[in-house]
Prior knowledge:
Elements: E1 10-15, E2 18-24, E3 31-34, H1 35-41, E4 48-53, E5 56-70, E6 73-83, E7 90-93, H2 95-98, E8 102-106, E9 109-113
Parallel strand pairs: 2-7, 3-6
Antiparallel strand pairs: 1-2, 1-5, 4-5, 5-6, 8-9
Amino acid sequence: MIRNRSGHYVVNGKINNQTVTFLLDTGATHVSVPQKIAQKLGLKRGQPVNVQTAAGVITTYTTVLDSISIGNIVMGDVKGGINPFMKGEQILLGMSFLKHLTLTQRNDTLTISIP
Length: 115
């Protein structure tokens, strides 16, 4: 995947077989889903949790993603959070997914693979 003009890696994928857009975020502990998108995906809102963000401490809600896929990489039962403060359509693809993969960056290209 190629880095965008803002220096971020953005990729289309799927959550529970529904197409979404991910922003790769190695600084995020879990996959963070905007509440509006979580509702469209039919995600179950779990326990409230206080989390530290760049903007300060906020309350999000635990959830478990039955499946996440990017290309031929598929994982099930991935921990996530529903974030009522996130705007937009992008989902932060955090370490609860990325920690199981190998990330290799060369210049402006990031390759993700299963170790």
